[in-house]
Structures are given as structure tokens and as C-alpha cells.
Amino acid sequence: MANLGIPQNTIEILQKYKFNFQKKFGQNFLIDTSVLERIVAAAQITKDDFVLEIGPGIGTMTQYLAEAAGQVVAVEIDKALIPILEETLAEYTNVTVINADVLKLDLKQLADERNGGKPIKVVANLPYYITTPIIMSLFESGTPLESITIMVQKEVAERMQVGPGTKDYGALSLAVQYYAKPEIVANVPPNCFIPRPTVGSAVIRLTRHQEPPVDVMDDHHMFALIRASFNQRRKTLANGLSNAPELHLTRDQVTQAVEKMGLSATVRGETLTLAQFAELSNLLKNA
Questions:
Q1: How does pLDDT run across 153-194, given as a tens digit for each residue?
Q2: How distant, in Å, are the alpha carbons of 76, 130, 272, 283 from that of 54?
Q3: Count of CB atoms within 10 A of residue 242's CB?
Q4: Cα 287 from Cα 283, distance rounded (Å)
Q5: Does residue 133 sit in helix, strand or coil?
Q6: How far is CA 280 from the centre of its chain?
Q7: Please, is 112 exposed, middle or buried when counting C-beta atoms within 10 Å of its C-beta (0-12, 13-18, 19+)?
Q8: Domains plus CATH for the chain?
Q9: Could you report the per-residue pLDDT of 266-280, keeping only the tens digit for each?
Q10: CA atoms of 118 and 71, how far apart (whole Å)
Q11: What pLDDT sits at residue 153?
Q12: Predicted TM-score of the model (pTM)
């Protein structure tokens, strides 16, 4: 099968199947062989690996993954792409295509059945609107993960690796850094895709922590605090958390915990580190 990383080959197959891009699925297909090679290299794929690819499109990256990995399962939501994938991946015996919404699949069960419960590697080119739900569902589902290497909008990649005090720092930064070590491995300009997106993209690798980097009694409670503190960025932590109905906290409880941590009563959530959110969660849990 022709290498789909070459633009002409991609155009030919799209014309052959009279494929129409679906805006609702945020479809942009990679047409740059050097970027494809960099993604596979960044994901450190070997013949021992089971790779889950989310959103294979017409199979461009899937071809590269199939050459490098032991086994690839590609999950594609758009049923119009399934006949194309059957053609472009026909010669690869180590690839399985599943037509499904990845957010509705039991990925833990998939890893257990297909890879004996050993950690899997995830590779994906994710549309902007669904990046955060997919990443969070991968981490929170208990799926055994070694790493997630994904192409996302550049500013989303930056948001995942920044620290406190920056405007991009938020709930996503803290969630990703709790579960994994984020590292941007490549910036990818719009001209590497068909159709061209309006924004730049980046490839980021999230290497799963063996153990969380902070000690927290209840991570669900900590993330509820984090979400509430960033929902109202302009407010002090005491106001933001006491206004969040799901937390059932009073201003006094929050102020006491914050002062116990040696912080000012007027501190804002965006200045706290992950370790400080963990400490605050533990203090409020005990209170």
C-alpha cells in the first residue's frame, strides 16, 4: 500500500472514496512523513508494544505504527472511514480497527483481553474539542498505561506542562502532572495537514508516573477543589471554594486550612502547586 504520509497518496484515496471531511469530528489528516516518524520515535514504539491508536483517520499513522509495534488497535468513530481503513491497512496482519467512540469503550478490558493487562502505549491525533475528555478518561479509567503520545492544539500542549502563576495554568495542567510527566516533543505547523487547521499543533508525550508525585488521601476530592478554584479564577481560594455547592465548605474552614499551610488568607488557586493542592485537600478532608 502507498505511504499515506505523501500528500498525493492521501488525496488519491480521499478522491477514490469521495470522502467528505466531517467538521463535527475535527478531521485533519497528517501529510508529513518526517512528523509521522517523529511521533513513532517519541512514543518509543517497539515490537514488544501493544499500541492503542485513537482516531486513525485514513490510516496514515497506523501504517507507521504497524511497522514498529507488535500489535495495534485503532479506534475510529467515523464509519465512513472504515472501508478506507480496510484498504489502506489490508497488508498489516497486526492491526485491528474498531468502529466506536473511544469514550464509550472499556479500555481497561481491552488492555486486559488483548495485552494480558500489561501497560499499553496510546498514540493519537486528537481534535481540540475532545482532547481533555479523552486524556482524562484514559487516566481515570484505570487502563494500564505506559505513555500517551498525542498531537493536540499547540496551546493545549503548553497548558499541560506549565506551572503556577502563568495564565495557561489550570485544572488540565494539574491533572496531567498528577498522572504523568508531560514533555512537548515537536511543534507541527498547519501545512502538515489536509485540510489545513487554523492553529498550530504540537506533539506531547505523557509518561505515566509509577506512583503519584504527591500524597493525597482522596484524589477525587483534590480534583474537585482544583476545578472549583479555577472555575472562579478572579476570586480568592476561600471565596471560590466556599461558593462551590458540591464541596460543602465554609469560608472559615478554607481560610483556616490555608493559614495552616502558611499561606495568606487572600491567596488565589492559580498560585498553588500540585503539592499544595494535595496538602489543602488532606487538611480539609480531616476537618
A1: 999 999 999 999 888 999 999 999 999 999 999 999 999 999
A2: 7, 11, 33, 39
A3: 19
A4: 6
A5: helix
A6: 26
A7: middle
A8: 7-208 (3.40.50.150), 219-286 (1.10.8.100)
A9: 999 999 999 999 999
A10: 13
A11: 93
A12: 0.92
